[in-house]
Amino acid sequence: MNLLSLFCVFLCLTPALAIWPRPQNLTTGSTPLRLSSTFSIKFSGINQVPSDLSDAATRTTNFLKTDKLQVLTPDRGASSSSAVHSARTLSSLTLKLNSGATVKSVSSEATQGLGTQDESYSLQVPANGGSAVLSANTALGLFRGLTTFGQLWYDLDGTTYTLQAPIQVMDAPAYPYRGFMLDTSRNYFPVTDIKRTLDAMSWVKINHLHWHVVDSQSFPLVVPGFEEISQKGAYSSSQVYTPANVNDIVSYAAARGIDVMVEIDTPGHTTIISQSHPEHIACPEATPWAQFANEPPAGQLRLASPATTTFTANLIKAASSMFPSKLFSTGGDELNENCYTKDPQTQQDLASQGKTLEQALDTFTQATHSVLLDAGKTPVVWEEMALEHQVQLNNETIVLVWISSDHVAAVAQKGFRLIHAASDFFYLDCGAGDWVGANINGNSWCDPFKTWQKAYSFNPIANLTDDQAKLVLGGQQLLWTEQSGPSNLDPIVWPRAAASAELFWSGPGGDVRAALPRLHDVAYRFVQRGVKAIALQPQWCALRPGACDVDA
Amino acid sequence: MNLLSLFCVFLCLTPALAIWPRPQNLTTGSTPLRLSSTFSIKFSGINQVPSDLSDAATRTTNFLKTDKLQVLTPDRGASSSSAVHSARTLSSLTLKLNSGATVKSVSSEATQGLGTQDESYSLQVPANGGSAVLSANTALGLFRGLTTFGQLWYDLDGTTYTLQAPIQVMDAPAYPYRGFMLDTSRNYFPVTDIKRTLDAMSWVKINHLHWHVVDSQSFPLVVPGFEEISQKGAYSSSQVYTPANVNDIVSYAAARGIDVMVEIDTPGHTTIISQSHPEHIACPEATPWAQFANEPPAGQLRLASPATTTFTANLIKAASSMFPSKLFSTGGDELNENCYTKDPQTQQDLASQGKTLEQALDTFTQATHSVLLDAGKTPVVWEEMALEHQVQLNNETIVLVWISSDHVAAVAQKGFRLIHAASDFFYLDCGAGDWVGANINGNSWCDPFKTWQKAYSFNPIANLTDDQAKLVLGGQQLLWTEQSGPSNLDPIVWPRAAASAELFWSGPGGDVRAALPRLHDVAYRFVQRGVKAIALQPQWCALRPGACDVDA
């Protein structure tokens, strides 16, 4: 590394290289370089290139032609015109496996299990033209590197260029879990919306879709053997996810390096199952709802009923077999005690078994988790299951912290691995006012709006010992959809959800001041690719990095 | 009116008739009625039907075929199937002018001047089939009635029906000004976005687009004789509104009963003019910006300079001649004194004329307003011009109250007519966090988010005497676009902006509990028509009026 490129690591990176998330190690020069009009991506020494990897290379090549992302300066690059047009050309990018020989597909690596994956890669783009080289130990690593390669370039009058060759990247994620959660129960999202979201996620190296597929309001998942639940519980016969849809989504995700962790939230958040199975639901649609649930409608699985427990375990077994992921969430949030107190059958079940409600919850949870463990899967739960209830969770259980980031230490203290998903940093739905009716002055329960800066500045290991810090698997932003649907999916999520993508790929400590210009690039690039990311600032500010900072 | 229909005025209206805004007088029955497959809209006794009115009839007919809006109940109308399919059919709607004879076009009436318009109409839909009748005194009234007629119907398996015939409507607006403000300077919106917004506005009888077309960040308006301003001050040569674009927008709006009130904000909010005319701008892009402006970049017209005053008056004259509206806003908000204190030329100009800054502002304002008054136009200003400065405003000047609804009474006390646009009720951009950079914990300056309920519950005559109440022309919701652009235009505006549409058409006192089901209909109908209105609640709630109310 020469002195100039060292200088550029600190000062040139931000405005001029639209890479997101920030690589662990990046060096750049100051030589203009453009892509040849016959630029191509090649594979070297790989027996049987997996089709999902070659497809990814094709998509990258296409984006290099279609992105047309102008540099975000007032002149949009015009002053670099002669440098760009006289620059040497890069004719190709060559993908190599460090190990050579055969390689698993991106898809199989994406779903093979948290912490077993190698996403590292290295990328060399020479200043003198010729060919760039991307190498990795795995197809998944090559896939991540392709994503980075696709972010090195701007467009000027049809020429795809960088002013910062040579470029060297050595990269690997700080955390194995980088997620995004989507709720498809409160409002339904067509498969095309989910696939577009998966594309966007992959562009910022998010590797998990936490699919909160069902809830109290609707049950769109068509589970083999349990079709009656969605027949009666989906909003309509067209607002469902069939097994074929799930296959489609899961395959699409895996080919983009994304594992789909589905959640069947239990025993709360299950009201709509009463439409097909009234025998399994306590306090269905009970009123006033506020006494029976955190939001309407009330209704929970009769956790003390042996029949309901068996039904639920079988449902979870059937649902989990639809997904290749090793992760499966059984939920477990916001259990309402009053619902069970007022449910004669639950009281009778408890009495006949001589159990407390907490003991029944333990039995219920053991039953639903054991079908997952038997299938070689890892149960994932919301924090209450670890912190508020008397449930014996398997040591391998992963805990999603959602109520408050202040609860992270308590979960770690219990020795559980955890995923950051705290409402005070990561909830994308906060700040849109209260959505319950007849409440003129109601505000969002988790006001204020959680900005990208807020998520970006989160410290994943705050208040943790070094040993506890090892329990942090990563984190995610989340979209609960009481006030969202296909109409605002893109703008409410993007580019905000890129904040946690960088936090958990690049590691904490990123500077919002330096990040903003790159995040503008993310937003403008997403729009070019058909994802309706919002403007974070007036375009005047986007074109002038730093000029709209609070202290500028 | 029989007893049943009287009953229905109070209890049947809300869930079953998707009319928005609420008519002044509506009676409904309980007889099913469906549209004939050959349903048509006819004109009776009108010499030379204006083409914009016949176009509106064609659009209405098309929407009746394409809306496919299912009733928002869990069964989506299935239980009414036999009633619907055995219902009598309505073969036509006949439009009549009360006066007969010739009629002006919708467009000419829309732009002829505030308070001179007659938007009243009456509509009779018989229960026994045959033909419905819409009558009005003007083409504009017929246009409003057509909009209402288009909202009476649901779809069931391809049949367009109502269960509530006969329907009688007598309607007229409570206020002459029902607006929506769009800022196209902070971020640019293509003409197609503006036209789609005009369509949506017309569907809820909003009759003014307050077009905040330019500001400090960009100057997209191509003004004849002043082309250099947009050449240097638009974000790019494609992010402009040419005179042809303006004609297109103004004509499109007028044909939909909408007058376009353009704003050239002066003397503040004009930084970008320094790109083409540095001689006219004080403190251009001065830093730290917070000392010179409320948001970056700083820069204001040199109001004490005779040359700048002449330049501005000529610019306003040229810009105003692009728009047929009788209303023109010269802005006048957020003038920063320090900018002028630190500007040597302004200080010199003031000294040579022996004027205070306020006296210079008065001279400047007289000059810019007199070109409007000479052209038969009414100047419109932000509240500071009436409340904070020593400016002699013409009595006809209209004041936009924006800082706080608490300032309404002070404006009225000065005898000015006013338009409600207060940030504490009507700002659509609030609640999205702070947008200035490097500010991790910054919140929106006007937190929290302004819900539709908040706007809907506003009292336009609070703290006003009866005489002062007559000064209230109406009101509007506003979208400032520091954090918005084409990606989120629809979802951040709709259906929220329908709240003020009903408030100022139907008059205050509407009940949010009764309004919500109709507003769901608005949102679902907008989506059917290609406007991406958001979900206000989970679909479960939308299908069950009242079930998700805070006290349900």
TrEMBL record, chains A, B:
One of its GO terms (biological process) is glycosaminoglycan metabolic process. The active site is at residue 334. CDD domains: GH20_HexA_HexB-like (cd06562). One of its GO terms (cellular component) is membrane. Its EC number is 3.2.1.52. It is an enzyme of class 3 (hydrolase). The keyword Zinc does not apply. Residues 19-152 form the Beta-hexosaminidase eukaryotic type N-terminal domain. This is Beta-hexosaminidase. It comes from Macrolepiota fuliginosa MF-IS2.
